[in-house]
Prior knowledge:
By secondary structure, the chain is an alpha/beta fold. It has 14 helices and twelve strands.
Amino acid sequence: MSTAVIGSPQVEVANPYAMAVEQLYNAANRLGLEEWLVQVLAKCERELTVHFPVRMDDGSVQVFTGYRVQHNLARGPAKGGIRYHPDTNMDEVRALAMWMTWKAAVVKIPYGGAKGGVVCDPKKLSLTELENLTRRYTTEISVLLGPEKDIPAPDVNTNPQVMAWIMDTYSMHLGYSVPGVVTGKPVEIGGSEGRAEATGRGVVYATIEAAKRLGISLHGARVVVQGFGNVGATAALLLAEEGARIIAVSDSQGAIYNQHGLNPGNLLYHKRKAGSVVGFPGAERISGEDLLGLECEVLIPAALENQITGRNAARIKARMVVEGANGPTSPQADRILYENGILVVPDILANAGGVTVSYFEWVQDNMKYFWKEAEINQRLQEIMMCAFGEVWQMAQKEKVDMRTAAYLLAVQRVANAVKLRGLYP
């Protein structure tokens, strides 16, 4: 059989799906995968686009566009979040679905990757409009959903309440409750303890493991967080408990800095009151680009994809970059950071805490038996430590960066599953 020999372009890749495919090709070339297998893995199995009307509070009707994409189901049912964002598009969702496949494989969770999204600005919608949109979108994509088929979760601008509406809508269609159709829902209706903090907690576990390898003490370590949302805020709070000093954070409204440290608990309270981290007492406002260029031990990009690129990677002065967001670093930036001796803990490893505890929630729903939060956190830590160790060992063995190592492990596991299952018919 012929093997794939696919060159990776040495230019900046702005399209997230093109970026995801380039990362796949890089791993596939090193693994020597058959060309047909690479083509299977480079495409998403199912892509659904829906256009649906929603009645607004003023009586008007607005048509929204939504997506649900399943990348690969060889290792289990499709799993992935749903985001509400005005810039959501099909290529973004394709990339996120592919990254979910690799993420589940890195931590050995028996899922395939999926992702969904609706093109909207939820900040401009009332609660009633948001519920109407969610229920109609759920109905449109319900042909793909199911606890053994496709299990959504929260993502950018969605939360446990949105998951509750999705679960209820799906359940109403069937006539009985199906809590396992989504994860990240409220504990009162089958959600898991520890799920809300899981992604940020996983980022912290990855940071702790990386610091050990680099000989960095987290006590007094300077931390910069881009994106002070659920993931970034949780990571900041937990790292502060480890003795780290949070010197700068940002959100969609701006960035702030204090070299002596910001109290993340007080900052979270301020953001909930003011709607942004901007204006926090005792902090200096800086630009987003300046935030990325600050000298620090740990930089956590926890906002959106494509934030560290070939244009700004040379300005990064962190000892390590721990990716709380999906796809925040472009392939060209990866090469620059590696050449500059900066350790990048990739998204498919660093932020896999979310899908791991989502898996725990799904298992608990299926068993109708729930674990305590301490047990969940312990199980999460064990999985993250094991996965980090495997990726680190692969990086040392192959003399490659951590992302390439994670992809070598993940792509090989998915490729093996595809080959073992064979082609039907």
